[in-house]
Design a protein that fits this description.
globular; binds fe (ii) ion; seven-stranded mixed beta sheet; 367 residues; alpha/beta; EC 3.1.1.-; hydrolase; Metallo-beta-lactamase, Chain A; 11 helices
Length: 367
Amino acid sequence: MSKVSETTRESWIMSTFPEWGTWLNEEIEREEVKPGTVAMWWLGCTGIWLKTPGGGNLTIDLWCGNGKRTHGDGKMAVGHQMANMCGARNMQPNLRAVPFVIDPFAIRQVDAVLATHYHQDHMSAEYAAHVIQSGMTTTDEYGKEVPVPFIGPLKSVETWIKWGVPKEQCRIVRPGDTIKIKDMEIVVLDSFDRTCLVTTDSTGPDREELTGGCPVDMDDKAVNFLIKTPGGNIYHSGDSHYSIYFAKHGKDHKVDVAFGSYGENPVGMADKMTSCDILRMAEALRCDVVIPIHYDVWTNFMADVNEIRVLYDMKKDRLDYQFHPFFWEVGGKYVYPVDREKKAYHHPRGFEDCFEAPQNIPFRSCL
Ligand SMILES: [Fe+2]
């Protein structure tokens, strides 16, 4: 058989996807987290992996899907939250713009699966299937071996149960709840994701009518998380829009690192925080480092982080900012507080051992 005769579309997909294979899975497994620190990896969109010195591993919003892959009929699903929000009917061209950096089926150990809300880019049926099928367990706060918990607001738990996650393995949380996982404590806080409020249970012609009705309880639909770790307190705002109540969270809790969903909103949309909102959130939370996320993933919401940097430089002295932004890359690692002085990330560049082994070149003048 020749290369050409045995190569198929399926063989191409299996040999190239996921793009990073198990590279990041291996990196996370091998990472030894030093005492007094917390290691984090950006999985794309708002997906974050946290690992602690006590061997705790948890994921927030790990998602393994994509966006549009065909033009179809060119229309949005009737009742889609974006259609509800702005009255557009044409399909939004939201194609996935980043590679898959983690293989959910190659994950060997996680101690909790967290979701901030139930929108499709924040939960993964593939990951849930793997955690359930592999019978993955962790230890609870009493040292008892238990199935890995799935933790999220009511609507996220309903989604997991619909997918087949056992009900008893799910934990519905609301603002004010706390859960201990190994050397971490999850503190559940209010979400400010107004897009979630205009999301109906179903799409299609029978979708519920929201016009004139009172908004439903945000706490059933979305939450923010503060993860207290030996390396600092990590605030994950899910897809929250800007809210003045960030200031209350900042007064109630010490926040070291804050993640905010940033994006360039198309005209007619107010779904993501702008550069100004990201700075206002960081100031209100009184955090040490603010890290924009989510702007990476959708082609129609991509944004330039330099806009945050320019605004930050304009405002930091006059407003006496006590925080600074950090600009990350999907698949990258950030260890707090070790990396706290860093302003931007670059993937490892390699070749550190150059000229340590013999070269194989005709002449040194080639160099
Ligand atoms: Fe999202």
